[in-house]
Amino acid sequence: MKKIVEKLYSQGDVTDNELEALINTSDEAAIKLLQSLADKTRQKFYGKKVYLRGLIEISSYCRNNCLYCGIRCSNKDADRYRLSREEILSCCENGYRLGFRTFVMQGGEDPYFTDDIICPIIAEIRDKYPDCAITLSLGERSYESYRRMKEAGADRYLLRHEAADEELYSKLHPESMRLETRKKCLFSLRELGYQVGSGFMVGAPFQTTKHLIADLRFLQELQPQMIGIGPFVPHHCTPFAGEKGGTTELTLRLLGIIRLMFPEVLLPATTALGTISPDGRERGLMTGCNVVMPNLSPVGVRKKYDLYDNKISSGDEAAECRDSLRKRIEAIGYEVSQERGDATGFTV
Ligand code: 5AD
Q: Which of the chain's ends, N or C, has fewer CB atoms near its CB within 10 Å?
């Protein structure tokens, strides 16, 4: 098994059969080696730096009905909100003061945020904070919409592909959503010059090792600048309420594999990983991760952006707790960077 890890480290790829063996192994020495080579690789390209992204959750309205997600449109118990232009700008102001140089505007697919509404907000942030990166995570939109938002000043876009296998994708999403559409959006974003982030959930219902391999192969085709993965965590008001969640171990295994397959990628230690285990994000950072995304949303709405049960929203993942977050990062030997944190090799 250690031979497979070494091959992945030196060549950046292994066969499907080798990936399958590595994903499923319980060989402790190989797991330890994967972790240390993932860390060595991240340090080669990024040193000890951890980049911060300030996450502004602009709306919990969503027209989609993804079976796993707590803000799916058919969840009538969801407490919906959307931020005003003024609220979004005040999050940025607060974030800038706290040292953030990337703002991520994320939301459900809220029909309210048309291009005519969102583009002037993007342009205003671009104008006020020329040294900051603007990241959007607003789901599937038209090519023309992505183009207009880019023109208004957006730099990056996060859109997880969720599942690269057709059959699994259709079990996780309603009939109206298509893997093909999702992929088309991702390639449009890339063509328009966005730095793109994609990814998937680990341990989603019906997901097998073969599906995870398909996810890794799709990411090789897309070559995104960022890869976001986190464990699936059930939400009590969804059809998957009674399903098992993904594990920390499997998530860490995939993070290590991803770092070796995509040596220069930006890899966040996600909130979902921090939610299922208290030291999840630290362990992620020690297994190749180099990004953390603290919450910059107004405190009053945080609980309402309720994608899965027990989502952490106060404590060290809150932007205003950056000193304690910094201490946690330094305690494991890394350092918080004040830079925008573009992917290495990507010229802005
Ligand atoms: N568990 C874990 N992650 C989830 N997401 C949505 N619902 C869940 C859940 N129940 C993830 C999706 C989406 C991102 C914003 O949150 O992968 O792309």
A: C
54 in Cβ contact with 95 (< 8 Å): yes
Summarize pLDDT for 172-210 with one digit per residue, the tens.
Answer: 999 999 999 999 999 999 999 999 999 999 999 999 999
Q: Of the residues 75, 308, 313, which should be mutated to test ligand 1's pocket, given the most ligand atoms within 8 Å of the CB?
A: 308
| Residue 99, token pair as written in the block | 């040292």
From the options 3.20.20.70, 2.60.40.200, 1.20.1440.20, 3.30.70.940, give the CATH code of 2-337: 3.20.20.70
Contact status, residue 62 vs residue 73, Cβ threshold 8 Å: yes
pLDDT digits (tens, 9 = 90+) for 216-274: 999 999 999 999 999 999 999 999 999 999 999 999 999 999 999 999 999 999 999 99
The C-alpha atoms of residue 125 and residue 122 are separated, in whole angstroms, by: 5
Boundaries of every domain in the chain: 2-337
Ligand 1 centroid to residue 202 C-alpha, Å: 10
**Is the beta carbon of 305 within 6 A of some atom in ligand 1?**
no
Closest ligand 1 atom, CA of 307?
7
